[in-house]
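Weekly structure sync, notes
Attendees: PL (lead), two postdocs, one rotation student
Agenda item 3: pending single-chain targets
PL asked that the sequence for the first pending target be pasted directly into the notes so everyone works from the same version. It is reproduced below exactly as submitted, 140 residues in total.
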Amino acid sequence: MAETVEALFEQGLQRYNAGEAPANLLPLFKEVCERSPKSSPAWTCLAWLYLLDSKPSQAMKAAQKAVKLNPQDPQARVNLAIAMLETAQTGVRQHVETASQIIMVSEELKEEVERNFEDGLSRKPEWKSLLRVKQWLTEG
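Predicted structure, written out during the meeting:
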């Protein structure tokens, strides 16, 4: 019997948290997104993996879907802002400002975004686009 989308998603998160390479997890998260196209968390994760794997164009497409599905998810907006910086797009500020407003009212979401910044830097040190977005959010 095929695994449920939820089980696949959880399995992917566990493998990611165990340190598995983003490139290895991309097929799993693509499948989750194909099987559950309205899952904002799945698209947010897929965008993050693409960013870690230095595929900003694909990351931007996934992050745009995540933001469209859940405009109030600050991590989706952070991912989109990073992808936009890495592909030299305009309009980054709007997403950073929206993410900033959301994390100001939710300590839980703020902590999640901060953990993801640290995780990203541990996996991809000197990640310039992530550092810029982090600076804008923490100084904003």
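Discussion points:
- The chain has a mean pLDDT of 95.
- The chain has one domain: 5-139.
Action: rotation student to compare against the earlier draft before next sync.
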